[in-house]
Structure to design on (358 residues):
């Protein structure tokens, strides 16, 4: 269906996405649907000549068949549902706290990228057969994992070298969550396609694929959706953009997020259960471990912390193996976040003493 709100919204959206030049928008209902559409965009653009897609271990891109194939964060997501999409290859993500190559950043020579170039592209698939690399700028379900500042610029360089497109899944990290409109802006690169949902309409069903015009110009009828871009959600999303701008919520996410990181750093010094604190803006992860030396995941302890916080009036959820997500509303104040952090600290201290005796 055609609505005036779609045009108005697209005009605003295209002003804030970090893709230069001519762009197009395709509206969907969800993040999974956006990623499904992006797969079709890539394969349609290359007309079958580049049939492979690369995704990352730890990734979460949705629960429909194509998006599900890109996932690699928990086996339960895929259990019972094979066969899935063919020609998808998973490679290690720069999870520096648990580097799969047993390296230490910054003296690691980015073996995760070296692995892609030297092993995948030389032994598994020719890069000329790869259409796109799908990624989350900060992995969500994988554990709120934040790559080093050099990673995405180097990935962009590698992709350009081989003519591979980059698809940036901003469903969790986008729309102000990290203190930028889109999380990839922290790394200063431009993806070729961005997929959007969740916060774009503050919870109403809306998603979008935004990409360079040459990629998004498939023949009419190639892709469609009945309810994508419904006028109620579009109108809500226009107001979301207006409110974020008028109330300076990007700055608030950055400011309050910095405060949270500082406080969590102080709490970490007192609580042995905390192994790592990482994040940008108001997208922060606290990884719990039973032993800081071995980094044994504190999986059961995570459940205890979540339950105890909930009983004390603070809602947190887990991610990855043993990570607490801190992802409050963008309007939150330092005073209110302090109340939540006070509760969280008490719970962490109690659980840490019960489990570790310290």
């Amino acid at each position: 269906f055609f609505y005036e709100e779609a045009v108005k919204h697209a005009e605003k959206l295209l002003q804030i996405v970090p893709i230069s030049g001519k762009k197009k928008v395709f509206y969907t209902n969800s993040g999974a649907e956006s990623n499904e559409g992006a797969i079709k965009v890539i394969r349609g653009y290359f007309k079958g000549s580049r049939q492979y897609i690369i995704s990352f271990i730890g990734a979460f891109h949705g629960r429909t068949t194509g998006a599900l194939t890109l996932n690699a964060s928990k086996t339960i997501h895929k259990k019972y549902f094979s066969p899935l999409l063919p020609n998808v290859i998973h490679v290690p993500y720069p999870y520096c706290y648990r580097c799969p190559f047993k390296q230490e950043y910054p003296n690691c020579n980015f073996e995760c990228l070296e692995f892609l170039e030297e092993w995948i592209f030389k032994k598994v698939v020719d890069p000329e057969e790869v259409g796109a690399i799908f990624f989350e700028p900060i992995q969500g379900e994988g554990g709120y994992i934040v790559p080093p500042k050099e990673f995405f610029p180097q990935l962009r360089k590698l992709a350009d070298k081989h003519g591979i497109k980059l698809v940036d899944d901003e469903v969790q990290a986008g729309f102000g969550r990290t203190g930028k409109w889109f999380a990839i802006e922290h790394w200063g690169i431009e993806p070729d396609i961005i997929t959007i949902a969740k916060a774009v309409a503050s919870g109403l069903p809306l998603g979008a694929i935004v990409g360079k015009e040459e990629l998004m110009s498939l023949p009419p009828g190639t892709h469609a959706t009945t309810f994508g871009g419904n006028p109620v959600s579009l109108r809500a999303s226009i107001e979301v953009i207006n409110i974020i701008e008028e109330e300076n919520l990007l700055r608030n996410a950055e400011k309050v997020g910095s405060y949270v990181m500082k406080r969590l750093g102080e709490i970490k010094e007192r609580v042995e259960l905390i192994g790592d604190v990482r994040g940008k803006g108001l997208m922060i992860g606290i990884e719990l471990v039973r032993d800081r030396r071995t980094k044994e995941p504190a999986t059961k302890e995570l459940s205890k912390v979540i339950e105890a916080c909930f009983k004390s009036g603070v809602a947190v959820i887990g991610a990855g193996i043993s990570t607490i997500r801190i992802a409050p509303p963008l309007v939150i104040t330092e005073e209110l976040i302090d109340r939540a952090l006070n509760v969280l600290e008490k719970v962490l201290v109690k659980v840490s003493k019960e489990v570790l005796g310290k």
